[in-house]
Amino acid sequence: MHEVSDLAPGRALDLGCGEGADAVWLARRGWTVTGTDISGVALGRAAEHAAEAGVGDRVSFARHDLTESFPQGEFDLVSACFLHNYGDFPRDAVLRTAASAVAPGGTLLVVGHAGWAPWQEDREEAHFPTPAEVLAQLEPVTAGWEVLRAEETERIQNQPDGTPGTRTDNVVRVRRPA
Ligand SMILES: C[S@@+](CC[C@H](N)C(=O)[O-])C[C@H]1O[C@@H](n2cnc3c(N)ncnc32)[C@H](O)[C@@H]1O
Description:
By secondary structure, this protein is an alpha/beta fold. The protein has helices at residues 21-28, 40-52, 91-100, 131-142; strands at residues 11-15, 32-37, 59-63, 75-81, 102-113, 146-158, 164-175.
C-alpha cells in the first residue's frame, strides 16, 4: 500500500481486504475506507484491527462476493491487492468493475504476485498476469487513463522457516482523468 503513500487522503475502497491491514494503514493516513471481502471471519478480524488502531470511525467493512455484488459509490482510490484468479474467479472482469468505481481524478491500484514464491512447493496451475496483461484487461474501461506505474517489484517476505526470502510482485497504478 506504500505505493500510494503520495496521495492526498479521500475515499478509498479496498477489494479483498482480508484482515484489514491495508484498510487500517489508509485510515491512519486520513482516508475514509470501505473494506470488502467474501470472508465474514476476515472482516470481523479487520473490524477488530481497525478498532484497536483507533480508526474504527473511518473504516467500514462490507461483505461481498465480488463475483456477484460490488460496493456502491465512487472512490478516489480503489485498490485490489493480491486478489488473484485462483480457481474460476473472474479477476479481469472484477478489475474492470473496480475501475468503473474510480472517481474522476482518482487512482486504481492493482498489486499481484508475478509468480509462485521460490519456496512454495504445492504449485497449482495458475496464470499470474503481467503488468501489460493487467493493463490490457482494464483497457475497455481505462482507455485514456494515465499509466503511472506498470512494473515488477521485489519485496522481502518471510519464508516458512522464518528466514527472509525475495518475492516478485506486479504493480499497476493508473489514474482516471479529472
Ligand atoms: C491473498 S488475500 C489478500 C488480502 C489483502 N488484500 C492483502 O493484500 O493482504 C485475498 C483476499 O481476497 C478475498 N477474496 C477471494 N475471493 C473473493 C471474492 N469472490 N469476493 C471478495 N473477496 C474475495 C479472500 O477472502 C482474501 O481475503
